[in-house]
């Protein structure tokens, strides 16, 4: 388990090493092509040191990597503010977003799919503005309704939802513990509108929403929520994210990814089907 930047360095390094070997180059040959010492290439590939986006571009050019989406993803892992892909809008909020949150958003913006178990609140990508405001205010603490920082954090949460409308859109699979549907956040009116928003979102082709009902009893996700990011170009970049009050932990080992992927599949099996889930949420919303 590591923090976001460390995981990004390791994953970026591993991918660059794979691309170098795929190009039939030794680390020394790659270093000579870009005018570096061989030790710099080695440090980058092991994740021992960071690498600037400009240096990543040099290596990708040397390795003959023409895939624009793969190049963009690797540049994001290197901390690029721009590129040919989605606009990295979150950099405008550097003053209010902690680094771990920026890391999360950067991964979310480039992932092809996201699997999430939520046990307390509606996933951020599916929240209404009112619900997002109530959740953010409670999570951050010490902010009142007129606080500009609260406004900015809510703006960020809502802007993140654009990934569901992108081309191609992020594919979201979410399992919600039934407690999420009954925890009254923001008052009855806010909660009612949020439930109907879930029903609406669950009908989108890129969203698979399932409810894990109370009658399912104890389940493998009872220890807490998690997120799995999947990347279409290479599974080596897939990562599990565990959120804590003051930080996030990233699990990148293949055995961890396999364990959480299997756990998520098990949760889907025990949850209501997507069709049953939407009917179930609608029934709760009718009584809200």
UniProtKB/TrEMBL annotation:
Domain HTH cro/C1-type: 16-70
GO-annotated molecular function: DNA binding
Name of the featured protein: Helix-turn-helix domain-containing protein
Pfam families attached to this UniProt entry: DUF5753 (PF19054), HTH_31 (PF13560)
InterPro entries: Cro/C1-type_HTH, DUF5753, Lambda_DNA-bd_dom_sf
């Amino acid at each position: 388990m590591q923090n976001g930047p460390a995981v990004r360095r390791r994953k970026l390094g591993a991918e660059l090493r794979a691309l170098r070997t795929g190009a039939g180059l030794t680390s020394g040959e790659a270093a000579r092509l870009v005018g570096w010492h061989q030790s710099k290439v080695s440090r980058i590939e092991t994740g021992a040191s960071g690498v600037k986006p400009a240096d990543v571009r040099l290596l990708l050019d040397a390795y003959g990597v023409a895939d624009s989406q793969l190049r963009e993803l690797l540049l994001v892992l290197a901390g690029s503010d721009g590129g040919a892909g989605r606009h990295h809008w979150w950099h405008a909020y550097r003053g209010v977003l902690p680094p771990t949150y920026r890391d999360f958003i950067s991964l979310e913006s480039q992932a092809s799919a996201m699997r999430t178990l939520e046990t307390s609140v509606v996933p951020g990508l599916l929240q209404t503005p009112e619900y997002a405001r109530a959740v953010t205010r409670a999570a951050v603490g010490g902010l009142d309704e007129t606080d500009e920082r609260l406004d900015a954090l809510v703006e960020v949460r809502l802007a993140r939802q654009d990934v569901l409308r992108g081309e191609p859109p992020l594919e979201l699979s979410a399992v919600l513990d039934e407690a999420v549907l009954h925890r009254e956040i923001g008052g009855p009116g806010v909660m009612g509108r949020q439930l109907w928003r879930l029903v609406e979102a669950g009908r989108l082709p890129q969203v698979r929403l399932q409810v894990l009902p109370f009658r399912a009893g104890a389940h493998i996700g009872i220890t807490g929520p998690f997120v799995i990011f999947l990347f279409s170009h290479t599974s080596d970049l897939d990562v599990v994210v565990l959120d804590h009050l003051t930080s996030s932990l990233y699990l990148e080992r293949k055995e961890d990814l396999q364990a959480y992927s299997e756990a998520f599949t098990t949760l889907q099996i025990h949850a209501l089907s997507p069709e049953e889930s939407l009917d179930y949420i609608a029934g709760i919303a009718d009584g809200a």
